[in-house]
Amino acid sequence: MSNITSVPGADVVPTPAAKSAGRKPTVKREVNALTGMAHIGLILWALATAGPLIWVVLASFKTNTEIFLGKPFALPASFSFKTYADAWTEAHVGRYFINSVIVVLLSTAGTMLLGSMSAYVLARYRFFGNRFIYYLFVSGLAFPTFMALGPLFYILRSMGLLGTYTGLVLVYIAYSLPFTVFFLAAFFKTLPYEIEEAATVDGASHTRKFFQIMMPMARSGLVSITIFNIVGQWNQYLLPLAIITGPGTDDKLLLTQGIAKISVSAGYHAEWSTLFAALTLSILPMIIVYAIFQRQIQAGLTAGAVK
Amino acid sequence: MTEIFKAAEVDRRTLLRRAAAVGLMATPAVGLLSACVGGGSDDNTKQSTGTKSADNPLGIDPKAGVEIIIFNGGLGTAYATDVDIPLFNKKWPDAKVTYSNTEQISTVVQPRINAGTPPDMINNSGSNLMDFGAIVKAGQAADLTDLFAAPSWDVAGKTVADTLVPGAIQQGTYDGKPFAMNYSFTVFGLWYNKKLFATKGWTVPTTWADFTALCDKIKAAGITPFGFAGANASYYMVRALLTSAAKIGTEQCLKDIDNLKPGAWTADPIMKAAQAWGEIGNKYINKTYLGLRHTEVQLQQDQDKLAFYPCGSWLENEQSKDTPPTFEYAVAAYPSVTTSDQLPATAINAAAGEIYFAAAKGKNPQGGKEYIRGMLSKEAALGFTKLTKSLTVVAGAADGQTISPGLTSANDLLGKAGKDVFMGYLFDTWYKKLDDESRAAANDLMFKGGDAAKFCQRMEAASQAVAKDSSVTKFTRS
Amino acid sequence: MRHGKYPFIIGFLVVPVALYCTFVVAAYLQAFQLSFTSWSGFGAIKYIGLENFHKLWNDDLFWKSLRHNLFLLILLPVVTVALALVIAFLLNVGGSSRGGQTRGVRGSKAYRIIFFFPQLLALAIVAVIFQRVFGPDKSGMINGLFPDSWDNWLFLADERWAMTCILIVLIWQAVGFYVVLFSAGMGSIPAEIYEAAALDGASRIKLFFRITIPLLWGTIQVAWVYLGIAAFDAFAVVNIMTVDRGGPNGATSVLSLMIWRNTFEFSQVGYASAIGVVLFFLTLTFAALTLRVTRRESLEA
User: Fold this and answer.
1) How far is A67 from chain B (nearest CA, A)?
2) What's the start-to-end Cα distance of chain B, in Å?
3) Pairing with B186, which of A46, A299, B280, C282 sits 20 to 30 Å away (CA)?
4) What are B73-121's pLDDT values in tens digits?
5) Which CATH number is A83-305 given?
């Protein structure tokens, strides 16, 4: 690790000599410069990323006056957890969290299954209507979701699915398909054909090829798209607002709706610290889960590199 | 899609999948036809009725349930759950009240109205409220004439209309018929900290010269004399400006604006008001307020960083959590602008707000109206005022009660004004684009140099654009 | 072996396509239908042909909003992709070589977690947070860092800079997503390629441009399109963060905001749908053009 203890790389510019081929000491010097700059850049970005979040946590303990009139990173006058208790009960953070988990798990599973199935077929098989269906999916990305809220209400109502999780999950899957198909099709296209051909010669059916050969090969792409679907669906707000609505749905709201309720009422009742407490409560589990599974995720993402 | 039926080899699994697919395709197709937006069931859902009597003037069915939805905002919902619903159920114990609340009225209620299944009583309020004019024009709001003609809930010998403050019904009247009940009564004016003014020996001004002189003193003391929140509440400033205009030229100039009369915005009273306020903006406003929201500016006032703030009587309640003990809310009438103002300095702008209406196509519109009749009882009105520190349109319901300093101050102001209370204007609810333009124009006027002529011309152009736009429904008032 | 191909294809496509058509295609067809009407959101629907589109052509605010969307369209993908590529590269390959094996810089694991945080936040929440970051007085985060003698910057209240602030928020939130995406891509580049190049004495920078970028091209292309689509949206951030919803004076208005306001505030659903149709075709054109222009032969493994 000795080469990383170098001086901050900002004033060490790689000399022309460093670019010449082959000699280890040159590579070392150049790596110092790059690594030093890398560290500074990364630390700055980490501060820019984590800074606002630290602010949110601090603000969850502050009074309105402290938040709006005081210095942003000043410590709160007191660290009472009352706002967290309020957020838990008022915003029903606990219950809504579980609701969100259920809906997102079901939807992501459905999306990944159906999405990879369609993406695979569209990417690797030629048939009449292939391009049309592909563009049909991709054009869904161009459609602003909230324009669908009105029509969706009627469609779901006519199917009797309004206010139900079935309806919500189906809608989530449908609206996640464009993104999933778009990314996965591109990914599937890059996978080699040789292994697949060998399997065909061996007599494997299409379905078997898909589940037993192609999916494992596509693992890194699948893992990343799964993560994005989980995150995207977790943060989805407009769709549940339009669908989980009406009398008797109070218990069924999702976390994003709960937070939105508080943030709107914070505007009226000026309960900003409770809002930030609710925000912190909603982010924490995600961070913990991501941190725990980071290694698996990383392994999944780099699976392709290991031969 | 005919390829689905061409494949030679069909195994059971694929066949089932295809059948399911066809089934799935069929439903939405049928669904689309009837699920078309706006093509809702016109066949009337059976509406509940009962027999009319002295005790049941609106003829409701005592056993039918009533569904209500309340906006959860600055006034909270406690008045509904703790006062109105128990009161209603005391008289009608068999009529179950299904209650829900929301912060987003439009998103939650509008689709239901269009689908023909609205709640019976709706509190249309908040920043996400529905365009009530459009609702009326579409025939979705029930006619409230019978409600106002019915006897009062708890005041013997008077009709509901008799018990209300003058102008309350008029505000909810469209094309001659009442469709909305505006419940809370708000007094608008310049709000300030009574204790601060007492300590500093400042007195509330009645003429514009006094006003500017006082502002100079306040500025010298290191406090911002006047300010408002440019980021989301510049309509408070619009109201201040137009109130001053009305004081100069009576409410008629506001009626002209509402009626989109050509030249309404460039009329002399508006010009003078814009000039006077523009100067205030130039000299005394804190420029960073353009980017602040109402909460932030109001918090500054609580910390005595801001002296005068144009607002309505909900202010005290909204800030109750953050008001330090050194702060006591009081309100002053806007000072006279010129020496030839047609209205006296004590004239104030007070208006009813908070729309409650019964859905015309609901299951139990009469029940919805009966619920509103309950709200208009003196008992319910007093309960409302106690909980929200806001007056209602029920005259005298809060008389003799000391509830809070701000409310007392507002009540005082009402007393001093006597008959010089005017309702103000309605264009901000009728023509949203014009409302939008007025907010931007007010910000420009106050924060960017105080050009009164520009303000007036800009508003005049916008007003005429709305007048010529045939896709906008027009209303008039007299 | 051709037999069994079509049932397989159909079998795999039928459920997703059906689901998609029911809930997505049907919805947007209805929305398009509305663009030919003057519907207010309540009551009867009246067809008025192309009048809405004519109105749109003459609407100043429409052109202003379109310009703002184009501003985002040009800058958002470029800056985000560049930042994400550099960061992903540093995290994967930027560290020292030891025994010929390339690794990321020290602390990569921690950085990876921190950089992903913004993605875990809903855009609406990010908007609320950045309102405070850009607060125009000393309690705003950025203004609070400046020395007291400096004038406060107005940020969102300043017509010249408001749109840039929006851009910054969008970049801040998006970068983490693409760092993970590009990391995944870089992760599937066989390590041997890097090792071979490093042995040949290629510098990191050369590695980056000659190997990483070409091999990631498919991913970069797809990222570009997705970011461009985000640039045509930007609704949540603008709606929550800006002065007077799209101000000051229309300085931050974007097409998606216009649609929202016309639907929910001005009761002009027909007009809003017309804007929606235009937005849809603009986005589609952008996506199609980008995919075509940046097309490259896929590299054989």
Assistant:
1) 9
2) 62
3) B280
4) 778 889 999 999 999 999 999 999 999 888 778 878 888 888 888 999 9
5) 1.10.3720.10
